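ugh ok so i messed up the first submission bc i forgot one of the chains. this is the corrected input, ALL of the components this time, i swear. 652 residues overall. if the numbers dont match what u have on ur side tell me asap before i send this to the collaborators (the ones from the other lab, u know who)
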Amino acid sequence: MSAQTILEGAGLRKHFPVTKGLVLTRVTGWVKAVDQVSVTLQEGETVGLVGESGSGKTTLAKLFLLLERPTEGTLRFYGKDLGQFTREDFARYRQTVQAVFQDPWSSLNPRMRVAAIIAEPLPRETPKSQVKERLAQVLSEVGLSLASGDRFPHEFSGGQRQRIAVARALVTYPKSIILDEPVSALDVSIRAQVLNLLKDIQHRLGLSYFVISHDLATMRYISSRLNVMYAGKIVETGQSQEVYSNPLHPYSQALLSAALPLHPSFRKSRIVLSGEVPSPLNPPSGCRFHPRCPLRMAICSELEPLLKEPAPGRLVACHAVNKPD
Amino acid sequence: MADQTPLLEVRGLKTYFFTRRGTVKAVDGVSFSLAPGETLAVVGESGSGKSVTALSILRLVPEPAGRIVGGEVLLDGQDVLKLKRREMRRVRGSRISMVLQDPMTSLNPAFSVGDQVGEVVKLHQGVVGGELRRRVVDALSRLKIPSAEHRLADYPHQMSGGMRQRVCGAIALSCQPRLLIADEPTTSLDVTIQAQFLELLREIQERFHISVVFITHDFGIVAATAHKVAVMYAGKIVEIGTTEEIFDNPVHPYTEALLRCVPRSDRLEGRLVDIPGQPPDLANLAPGCSFAPRCPRAMDRCWEAYPPEVEISTGHVTNCWLAVKAP
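and heres the new structure output, hopefully the right one now
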């Protein structure tokens, strides 16, 4: 069965202007939050995106949610370009691509009852009986009782609130959900509940997920394909298991090695990177990772490495990995 | 390490909050001891009382709602709970100091970094002028802040999260404390920056032989740093032991479940083991074991009475009826 591609971003860029002056505003620079990123999301798969803060992962999610428009590049939805979208296309897009955010304390309106929160994405003209029916369906889907609908968000714990957020995302029969750090704000014992729930729902409904996280353990558990992002660029992509067991890009290697051990006997000499994520306002020349890279060569500060395929299904942007011919 | 006299000994510590909803027993009879140079990780979920335990050691529990109602906190044999307020102020920052979770809120945005580190040194050691400046630069460079002498006039907003947390570390360690309390110091940091900070902390701890109480909810941090682990649930330590013992031979079902609900690379297939239900309401605790409602192996007597302490092996103690041998 060949899965259909739901979303396809090609060469996406999002640059934010930095301005000076109040009246005579002039642009003094550009923050290249997302720079030349290509990502696809197919039906039924889980694509993960890891990166540190400031790497542009949330901006990429905003592009996918149409909360920001790309400065450059194309975003296709079932093959149709964003530029040619009609009103109906936008409506369909927003129903098909839903979102769950990190913090269930701020993503649910405290003045609305849970039933109203969950039903809000449904079209206005939906008959009341249908809304009620759908509400009951999604509530049971996420393991909440029907009576929860009459209550307010503050009456729920973190894990339950995240379930409400998932229910709201499910209500429009989406094909894919963008999950921005879905469990980071939750307690350890509750994280497992929510991760299990997400996996179960995906299984039952055939959803595809685009998961953003900095938590490598969670990501490994949930994602089938993995993208590693650094300073606005994707530096490595591949099947999750392969990237985890054999990271090729030196940044992926350092990132995975910085992950905490699972057992005290695994305390090892980790690759501890010096320095910090560069400012996207003024990224380093050439490869953006070169000032922190242990494999740095002369060419790295001059020429920006392109994504190449050193192994089947793996793309890596690194001069040291992709030996020039 | 076991035969050394402990630097810190907490005995039967009880900190309650008196609220309109009733008495919240945030910390209810916590005991542990810590040898010089040792690291104890206190693990638990939010609301388990781990942060209140830390605040109680420093006597920083927000009054009047919260009060330490019982127990002893012995630092080098001296009960800090009996000190006068003025004497306690001399202890804080010099013999015991603390690093908090979020450097964005624990630093004052209106003062330069140099002033904030200098304040502590001036207060505790009466140093001023050029000597003070030298001490501040020392403190900052000990935390590997690059070109520290040029950053004294910087304000917190000019620094990154990792650098800010180092400044907090420099403040905490500027007067060579014997005990450092770190309350989730890396939660707000990125993965690679977290690794840097933990590494740095370990280096400094070894060099100056400091004891550390590490408050965390992350067993990865425990595995990376701690000698001993205390697992807290609903205001009580339910299991305590060496890190190896706790990881390899957890006895309490809560510890076991916590260890298993973390996704692990060697167990990727299938579902994660989750802990059903929610943490309990501390204002409204039922008699018996607080974990019983969520425990997969709860028995009748778990609901009736709180289990006694059972020593599994030297230093490994748990409060669970499962470990109590039938008479």
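quick check: DSSP finds nine helices and twelve strands in chain A. that seems consistent at least. The mean pLDDT of chain A is 89.
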